[in-house]
Predict the structure.
Amino acid sequence: MTTNNFEPQIVAFCCKYCAYAAADLAGSMRLSYPPNVKVIQLPCTGRVDIIHLLKAVEDGADGVYVAGCLEGECHFLKGNLRARKKVHYVKKTLEELGLEPGRVEMFNLSSAMGPRFAEIASEMTQRIKELGPSPVRTHNV
Amino acid sequence: MIVGDRKSLSEILDMIKDCRNILITGCKGCVTVCNVGGLKEVEILASSLKIARKKEGRPIAIAENLLERQCDPEYIAELKDVVNTYDAVISMACGVGPQFLTEAYPDQKFYPAINTKFFGGATAHGIWEERCAGCGTCVIHYFAGLCPVARCSKSLLNGPCGGSARGVCEISKDVPCIWDMIVRKKTEQGRLNDLLCYTPAKDWRTSKDGGPRKSIREELIQ
Amino acid sequence: MNDIKSGSNLENVLRSGHFAFTGECGPPKGANVHHLKEKIAFLKGNVDAVNITDNQTAVVRMSSWAASALSVQEGVEPNFQMVCRDRNRLAMMSDILGVYALGIRNMLCLSGDHQKFGNHPEAKNVYDIDSMQLIHLAKTMRDEGKFLNGEAIDVPPKLFIGAASNPFADPFEFRVYRLAKKINAGADFVQTQCIYNMAKFRQFMKMAVDMGLTEKCYILAGVTPLKSIGMAQYMAKQVPGMDVPDEMIQRLKGAGKGKATEEGIKITLEQIEEFKEMKGVAGVHLMAIEWEHRVAEIAERAKMLPRPVVGSHAPAGNQ
């Protein structure tokens, strides 16, 4: 696989109150965003655990991100803040393992931010394209 | 509980660099409570190690397991049928676990994934602090229920030393001066007189200084 | 304060009612005897005894007992310092016997700075006993002729036992009680931490006098000249348990360019004058850190010279 035609596989853990709803809005607004992003709906980003993010990387995802509500707007008060800490933990783990911590990221947005959802998806896809395929996946195939 | 921190991934990876098939075994005791060696942490360590080895192009098979306790031979025995099917075993228990495992299964290699640190408790979610030094002769009742042996940087029994300032220890602003707390608590209780008497030198024989320790209760021996 | 404890010069000076003056000397970071003797020579005749520090600030130096013994050879009476950080009770007792055998007669008992501050922070500390227990240990060895375990000592070490007190550490209200504990444990004399906050020290001394402590023990007020504004600021902010009031820093700043050092000495001299009159203060302990060559000048200007020569009174059973 060369980086020229590299199409990254990205997993996005999205809160149903904000990012997932924003994805719906982006759809109804007919905004296009890269097809590389596979969205997983969560009741709250507070549900995401370190192991979920690690498993995604272990199983070959080139990039993983968590998209939760704006800080201070979490439906469950602190779920998004806890998710941020878990993302930070996984970033540190990747760094320790010699992987780019930028492969994992935390984003915050509201349900009204359809365009922002599309923008995040493009931004993350672009970032991962620049980083190249995950060495975990390349060695795996 | 016994509190520890996980070793760095690089150190653990180095331990198992020649292995292709390992077992990681956690413990449901103290290390589960202090979130360092329970089921979740076993999963996280296994996934992290697998990521590292996939990245190197030398994937590793990792089995995950959780024992009721690794400080009791009856639970250690649960591994007897499988233990020798792995190249090595990583224990996520405190320092007791890998030793009990080693004693039970002399043919296998056991590696500690945890740096065992102290006897303590959680003062807030995610924060643990030392409370006991296991000296073998508890004296906290003389010191307003606070232990100067474990919690004074110099284990002073007639403190506070001249380095106590604004309630913190001379070694770090993050370390409270336990003697400051002892004096304040005794003052509040109107029992400052208790601290005016001289506390003689401690007999350290009951501590680690007396050699490896043992506790025997005849009535329980079968 | 009745019986002769050790017959040391410091004890004799204090017993005869003179205002004592002690100095300080840090052993070299090496076996440079020449350098040590040079530093000691600066103090000769200018002080009653010289504190020989024991791996101060947890930095490895020539052992305090060896440097103290060299000081004896040079004719300058040492005040041998011992910290609890580096020795267990066996090493402490054998060193106490050893220093006595080498002619050392004063000893200062300290907890010691934590090794975290020093040049071997990875070291294991000892703290088998604390400074209070060390005072008691030295007294038991001297007055009862017994080791800590109760066994008899063949020729007990007759040392003049000193302790430190920091009136500026917290909790302030407890400090005078801790001083009382040290005196009860066996301290014959006390040297205080460097004093800059005179108001607080006056308050501390008043409490000590009211409690009758100065009747039982000689208290030497500790002074360290501030060599520069930078040093003053460092002491104020970085040294735990040190209290340098802002007015003092302002005074150094106000002295004008290049005059802070002289102003620092003037402050020290003013402090010494006040200590001479202060009830309960039996002397001054000058900690001129790496400034041994200025001690003669400071002693002279403080009108502490010449130092008294007091006849030696050896305690009974001294050898």
Notes: The radius of gyration of chain A is 14 Å. The beta strands of chain A are 10-15, 37-42, 63-68, 104-108. Chain A has a mean pLDDT of 94.
